[in-house]
Amino acid sequence: MRKNSRIGRIHSIESFGAADGPGVRFVVFMQGCPMRCQFCHNPDTWKVNDIHSRRCTAEDLLDQALKYQQYWGAQGGITVSGGEPLLQLDFLADFFQKAKLKGIHTTLDTCGQPFTKEGSFFTKFQTVLAFTDLILLDIKHIDTTCHKKLTGHQNYSILELARYLSEVNKPVWIRHVLIPKINDQNAYLKKLDHFIQELTNVERVEVLPYHTMGKIKWENLGYEYPLTGIEPPSKQRIKNAEKLLHIDRYN
Predict the structure, then answer these.
(1) What CA–CA distance (Å, rounded) separates 67 from 113?
(2) Which of 2, 77, 94, 232 could bond 58 through an S-S bridge, CB–CB 3.0 to 4.6 Å?
(3) Has residue 184 been placed in a domain?
(4) Phi-psi region for residue 87, left (φ > 0), alpha (ψ -120 to 50) or beta?
(5) What span, in angstroms and rounded, lies between the C-alpha atoms of 83 and 2?
(6) pLDDT per residue over 121-153, tens digit each?
């Protein structure tokens, strides 16, 4: 491994991502996540030091990404997702800084759970933010109690991050996984819409229909899948959510 470059723990890579930011993107899925979302389709990313994860330097990862740069076009670039990238701030800052020196558009996909304005985390986060063009922010549930039941954590830090990004005017796409019987009720959607309207930096709102494709991973890992019996939302419920969240206002 190269010297003077941070080491990151990588779960996997998608060379031609089309669903994690604008254009065609090189998507890096980081290893480790503090959340335990009941609908997670990548529970194999949870353990920070999973023996199957790959360790690499920011330079080596960027070299790999650059092999696909010709396919990105004017809108594409690099997206770092998870797991939760904010658990590896030093590596993320190094990787994004090197990418920006190459003129690459950088996107961070985060649930925001580790966010705090306290201590070294905030200082490091501000460094990452300086080299980040766009943030995809996942809001799992707008109700704090329901959010904890769904993910294992309250949503205070996530909403605090959303407000902070608005304060500094960092472009954001809000993403919301729509789960029947969990967060698709009109009252929750209206409350989420009200929160989003208070922000001044939202460029896009995405409703992501819940799916069960990750269930097999839960079973292979020996975990009991908690949402057994809940089917993906109907087209009608998806359209209802899109209407209540006023996605046409942004998209």
Answers:
(1) 32
(2) 94
(3) yes
(4) alpha
(5) 25
(6) 999 999 999 999 999 999 999 999 999 999 999
Contacts 24+ apart (CB under 8 A), 96-104: 96/128, 96/131, 96/132, 97/131, 98/58, 98/59, 98/62, 99/62, 99/65, 99/131, 100/131, 102/62, 102/66, 104/65, 104/69, 104/77, 104/78
Tell me the pLDDT band of 249, cut-offs 50, 70 and 90.
confident
Question: pLDDT digits over 39-98, tens only?
Answer: 999 999 999 888 889 999 999 999 999 999 999 988 999 999 999 999 999 999 999 999
Distance CA 209, CA 108 (A): 21
- Does residue 1 lie in a domain region? no
pTM, two decimal places: 0.94
The CATH number of the domain holding residue 43 is 3.20.20.70
202 inside domain:
yes
Specify the DSSP class assigned to residue 26.
E
Q: Is the pLDDT of residue 3 over 80?
A: no
Q: Which domain holds residue 110?
A: 7-249
Burial of 11 (0-12, 13-18, 19+ CB in 10 A): buried
Sign for the CA dihedral angle at 110, 48, 106, 131 comes to positive
- Domains: count for the chain: 1
Q: Helix, strand, coil: what percent of the chain each, to 5?
A: 40, 20, 40
